[in-house]
Design brief:
heterodimer; A: alpha+beta; Aldehyde Oxidoreductase, domain 3; Aldehyde Oxidoreductase, domain 4; 3 domains; 7-stranded mixed β-sheet; 5-stranded mixed β-sheet; 22 helices; 28 strands; B: alpha+beta; Uridine Diphospho-n-acetylenolpyruvylglucosamine Reductase, domain 2; Uridine Diphospho-n-acetylenolpyruvylglucosamine Reductase, domain 3; Enolase-like, domain 1; 4-stranded antiparallel β-sheet; 12 helices; 34% helix; globular; binds flavin-adenine dinucleotide
Chain lengths: 786, 288
Amino acid sequence: MSSRIFGSGIRRREDPRLITGSATYTHDIVLPGMVHAVMLRSSHAHARITRIDTEQAKAAPGVLAVYTGADIEGALQPMPCAWLLPDSDLKIAAYPCIASDVVRYTGDIVAVVVAEQPSQGYDALDLIEVDYEPLPSVTDPEAAAADGAPQLHADIEGNQAFHWTVAGGDADAAFAEAEASGVVIKERILQQRLIPNAMEPRGAVAQYSRATGELTLWNTTQNPHILRFLCSVVTGIPEDKLRVIAPEVGGGFGSKIAAYPADFVTVFCSKQLGRPVKWIETRSENYQATTHGRDHVQDVELAATKDGKITGLRCTVHAGMGAYLSTAAPGIPTILHGLMLSGCYTIPALKEDVYGVYTNGVPVEAYRGAGRPEATFMLERLIDMLAGELGMDPADVRRRNFIPKFDDGHKVITTLNYDSGDYPGALDKLLEHTGYAGLRAQQAAGPVNGKYLGLGLSSYVEICGLGPSQVAGAIGFQGGLWESAIVRFHPTGKVHVFIGASPHGQGEETTFAQIVASEIGVSSDDVKIFHGDTDATPMGWGTYGSRTTAVGGAALAVAVRKIRDKAKVLAAHLLEASVDDMEYEDGKFFVKGSPDKAKTIQDIALMANVAWDLPEGMEAGLEASTFYDPPNFVFPYGAHLAVVEVDTATGDVELKGYTALDDCGPQINPTIVEGQVHGGVVQGIGQALWEGAAYDDSGQLVTGSMLDYALPRADRLPPIDVISTVTRSPHHPLGVKGIGEAGTIASTAAVYNAVMDALKPLGVKRVDMPFTPERVWRAIQDAKGA
Amino acid sequence: MFAADFEYYRAGSVAEARELLAAHPGAKLLAGGHSLIPLLKLRLAAPAAVVDIGRIGELHGISNGGGALHIGALTTHAEIAASAAVNAGAEALAEAASQIGDPAVRNRGTIGGNVAHADPASDLPTVLAALGATFTVSGPDGERSLAAADFFQGMMATALGEHDILTAVNVPAAGSGSGSAYVKFSHPASRYAVVGAAAAVTGAGGTCAGASVAVGGATAVPVRCASVEAALAGRALSADAIAAAAAAAGSDFGDDLLGDVFASGEYRKAVAPVYVQRALTAAAERAG
Ligand SMILES: Cc1cc2nc3c(=O)[nH]c(=O)nc-3n(C[C@H](O)[C@H](O)[C@H](O)COP(=O)(O)OP(=O)(O)OC[C@H]3O[C@@H](n4cnc5c(N)ncnc54)[C@H](O)[C@@H]3O)c2cc1C
């Protein structure tokens, strides 16, 4: 059984509590004497606060306190940015927890009301008088970087947060040559702002004890240990007196990586009042003030020979950062984007300039894929355009440029060392599985009832399993990126695992148990996983960037192997044999050739814990801990195909089919892999077809609720066909890579390419995402007119 | 969010509801709550009192009499969609009701609340305009009956006065040789109609004896497309004739078009003929 638990699609142990409503989320935490904080958020995108009067609100029923920027002066430090991008002229604007002079986006906190009941808090919000002197605002990143744009921060010229570059080879020479004798493809791509939409909005419960000076903070975070540190920095409470608990967290997609002002304002309120304080954002507040994703304006150029060989890539990106730099924000459009620019291809020369720009929008952070979807999209789109220009099939252009199969390292132009991959093999399998040639033939037969068929490919490789701590330091990440685990056997043979990683919906309680079970032959049901409490678990750097199984899972496997080593020594002792003569199989230790006289891991756990008869020098107990610092990143990859039909009469796009081939190495639990692919693919489809956060000219969020912001819905999606290949990572203890973001990284480009492929016979060249029917319809009308 | 404080009253009968409305100026009626409660929670509405009519039995249910379907104001979208009588006598209405929002909305939302709210993106007003429905209103001066053209007066505005209660919607039942259909372009987020087209066709032997067409979503109140109706009357119900007639749909819209960040008024008008054509085609098929 144990040998088969790795790779078995057992059901997620998390699900019974999640789907029966019995899980405990932050909002479910109720403490004696608890009161409620409600934030007053700016209604202006950019304005000077000239007067603020809280007297009436303070006198309102149930209100305990109202605090403004003046009250937190000295008590709450500005929000820190924790990714100090080197060599980029990084300028970090002061990011106060409560704005006191200028507000810089609709959602900036202006005051907080603490009341006995949340409804009393909301009533009192209406009684706070704020006089604003409106200032000109700008939400488009390119416009914000232009001369004469409204300035957000007095000391930061041109709103430029940073200017980061990546280069390799001689890109300019490649372009000069292509201009002369090859082809150059140019495109402007808008990666619109997206709202992450975790099912659970954000929130915090802070309980400060005046008697001990200790604080417990329940928070909807993806990384409780990082939050503990940041909370200490902002609130001044020493780290050893701080306990951060991430209870059940209902999804994050990156939006729960950052620390947020509201969390620390809640802490401040608890400290001031000596009572537990809860703050839970509404969905509208989530849209307004929880980080968004993407927001790139990309100008891209691809140089190639006339037979479709890519010779160079050049791009300029204006990345909107929002009004302030969120915790990890500077690393997203740079390290996680620029270093992946060459994708699955051999590109001899490239150059990218990324300008991080302050805008009057909510801060932009990691959002599922974080930088990599934007890189994949760029390349995959331009390759399709190159194919169109040369009259080649897009699959053939990809084949011509793929890095050949490799299984132990391949250095690319951006300096990364990919671990293993077979990109041509993935594409070939996808094309065969989907009957690509047949679909092309069907397309060639022409439209049916005004409906045009389109096929879109996307080959991707992504970087995850972040990452070697030495690299983290070199790229300015203010922390390590290792993971740790403690594995403890009880006398009964049951296992407790304490892990620093912080799963929040992905299903790692199940896969971690499977790792333990497969490494040491216990039943996965006998393994309990503890996570998300800084007082109860060892240090971890959080769950994001598809790193939890890749790094935390590796830590766990290494810890269990340490236990296996100790168990082997004890078994040898008990069997009066030499350790060298011992064999291990499926939870049993035995002398070579005598498997019938085996000691089970449960026997060993008992004997180690009672310690009646241990070998000389062996400590009692059966427990191990590890700090696993990965030697390299892992690089999952794959190829996706989208099939769409465009109704030319209305511009409506229907996704007819979607096939995802992903290679994340050996799959611990294929059902969970499939679920991750489904969710990821659908989020990427959402960007192509439906989603987009829009600010109007005055900086008001016009897609402020689910009535306007269109999330993908099941009835507009086809069944998603999930297939795979398996390529081990050469450096990972289990050979595994990551799968959390793969779907999103690939699917936006696949769907975009499919729609443009459908529109090609109509002469349409470019449409901005999302493909709303009106945009598609207009593009068709414009092409007709042209 | 949390609604501002209000007083809550539950009425046991239409008469009691009217008394409560009279006693509490500015009070709002509450039926299924799927339009009113979101407004209260966003504090876009803050009435001092709410009169819940949701449990008044006499306002609930569908009956057939005098050549019409009488649909009580409190009948839910789900009940209408599932009703054999509606599916037989007013296919377009059942079709529209089955496409409203999602199951939760259809199980709570009522026909009365839907038309009284008069959201221009709602589905039912369009269908009721095409089917020639009448609206029974109980007011301080007794009961009166209004045609769709008089009932819907503007964006979120109807002929209902502050003390009026809509009690029933009456839909003439289609005879044999008639058919109706509703075709909708749903907003991908809200599911409301960006454009919704309703058509009813009487077509003995493949010739159009009469057609009525209404389009919603592009204008403040549903538009009856007289030009389409006229173009089709007396014609053979062929695909070409339907397409040619439908092409005129936009000409009945006037200049005040509704648009938003998702779809402009111009676009809604431009694609309306496509939906009208589809609705007419389906209705003609059902008629024949
Ligand atoms: C997520 C969502 C999606 C939706 N999608 C659609 C859609 O696709 N298409 C669509 O058409 N609608 C849609 N709706 C609206 C839905 O149909 C509502 O149910 C309907 O608009 C209101 O009906 P109700 O019974 O809930 O009314 P309520 O919310 O209770 O009342 C609405 C208004 O009508 C008044 N009122 C109610 N009953 C009467 C009466 N008998 N007499 C006088 N006044 C009365 C109330 O005072 C109030 O002003 C959606 C709603 C939601 C929440």
